[in-house]
Design brief:
heterodimer; A: mainly alpha; two-stranded antiparallel sheet; 7 helices; 4% strand; globular; B: six-stranded antiparallel β-sheet; 4 helices; extended
């Protein structure tokens, strides 16, 4: 039941974050809650199905509102990547959390650009321009603070290198 | 004492414990995400619901949330009502005078002046649209516009969209989808957008393809039309060519020098209007069926 409670809460939060976005000349400025959740779920040791319910459903909602479904696969791939890399170094503490958030946001955008490009038939041409999304820069800059707030960076909940 | 002992009797402590535990759920969510990516299910109620909710929130904020301030100074007293009526009459006269001034100013408004300047093309009908929301991102450039309730039935995908930028009208994009009174418009800078353009000064050199690159970036592809490269010079205007679905001769973009070199490869088309600032658009509906 805890799993479903977090699912409802994060899905409603995702709708709110998508709704209260600001359109500027350099793109949409908003907090990409789906990417935030994917990164957080990858760092936190959750139950096997908790991560899936926590970030995939809000991510699909974000994608449905954006009218494309390339965001979720890229988030899932980043989720898998972070889960496999967090054993090598503790990504949940500063400064590794700040640096890795920026790196994984860039990786997420590159994957997203590639998937969008293959979808609309321009190949990998969109990878460069997808990197310039200000929403992901904002989210990556906020991620370490969000992780501290949510208890991931305290070391108690996070995976430690052996 | 025996109950305190762990059920696992022997743990191999010589080998490091892997911190990574793979779970079947992550592969299932990967399959789920891939399925959504491949099938690309489009649910219009969700897509347009957010736009409608945003418009409704704006109206609610204006009319309901702060609307009570209008009736705040209501009084039952007859005398005060009489003085109020006199005051309102004075206000009404002043407002009427202001309205007359404003209506003259509105007539001088740029958009309306351009509307009167627009050469009427008999092969098109015009539908006026008010921009409701914009999504101008590196990977897409879309507008949603509210069109009148009584839209013609043949307002369909692919209808050209223009906007007024004095002293003329420019091509802006084309209709992607119409749902009720909301039309989704793909701007020229959308990565999916491709239209045929030619140089306004030298149409004899033929056409080239103008492609969108996200945000407000455009790119010219004239590899298939090498003669077009000779027409390129700084500040040359590109106009729609006859083979595009736009009426021919509409201004689209202007070539601007980018970078240091002066060669034609450093000329970059830039849109004539800021797509993010568009307030009103006009959709052209062809009278004849165009294929």
């Amino acid at each position: 039941m805890t799993v479903f409670r977090s699912l409802f809460a994060w899905t409603i939060a995702a709708a709110a974050f998508h709704f209260f976005s600001i359109q500027t000349s350099i793109g949409v400025v908003r907090i990409e809650l789906a990417f935030f959740l994917a990164y957080r779920c990858a760092l936190l040791e959750t139950r096997p199905w908790e991560a899936a319910f926590t970030f995939v459903i809000p991510s699909l909602l974000f994608d449905a509102l954006d009218n494309q479904f390339a965001g979720t696969p890229s988030h899932v791939l980043v989720f898998l990547l972070v889960r496999r890399l967090k054993g090598f170094s503790d990504l949940s503490r500063l400064p590794a959390s700040a640096l890795s958030a920026l790196i994984f946001a860039a990786v997420d955008r590159l994957l997203f650009g590639a998937l969008i490009g293959f979808r609309i038939g321009v190949g990998p041409d969109m990878m460069g321009s997808a990197l310039l999304d200000p929403a992901y820069l904002l989210t990556a800059l906020l991620l370490p603070f969000g992780l501290i707030r949510l208890g991931a960076a305290t070391g108690r909940n996070s995976a430690r290198p052996v | 004492m025996g109950s305190d002992r762990p059920s696992v009797k022997w743990v191999d402590r010589r080998r490091p414990v892997s911190p990574f535990r793979s779970s079947p759920s992550e592969f299932l969510i990967l399959i789920l995400a891939a399925t959504f990516y491949i099938l690309n299910p489009n649910w219009p109620a969700l897509k347009y619901g957010e736009i409608r909710a945003r418009a409704a929130l704006g109206e609610f904020t204006r009319n309901r949330l702060f609307g009570w301030t209008r009736g705040f100074r209501h009084r039952d007293d007859l005398e005060s009502a009489r003085s109020d009526i006199q005051r309102y009459q004075t206000e009404l006269e002043r407002t009427h005078a202001e309205l007359r001034t404003l209506s003259i100013q509105v007539l001088e408004n740029d958009a309306l002046r351009a509307l009167f300047l627009l050469p009427k093309r008999p092969e098109y009908r015009y539908v006026f649209g008010e921009v409701m929301s914009r999504s101008i991102r590196p990977v897409e450039a879309r507008l949603t516009a509210r069109v009148p309730e009584s839209v013609p039935a043949d307002l369909a995908d692919g209808c050209p969209v223009i906007a007024s930028v004095l002293p003329d009208w420019i091509a802006v994009g084309q209709v992607m989808d119409v749902k009720g009174d909301i039309a989704e418009i793909m701007l020229l800078s959308d990565p999916k957008s491709r239209i045929g353009v030619m140089s306004a000064d030298t149409p004899a050199y033929g056409s080239a393809l103008l492609m969108g690159r996200g945000l407000d970036r455009l790119e010219l592809d004239y590899a298939a039309h090498p003669h077009f490269g000779r027409a390129l010079a700084p500040f040359v205007r590109l106009v729609t060519s006859p083979e595009s679905r736009f009426p021919p001769g509409l201004p689209v973009a202007e070539l601007k020098p980018s970078g240091s070199g002066g060669g034609s490869e450093n000329l970059q088309p830039s849109p004539l209007a800021s797509f993010g600032d568009l307030q009103f658009i006009v959709i052209l509906i062809p009278n004849t069926v165009q294929r």
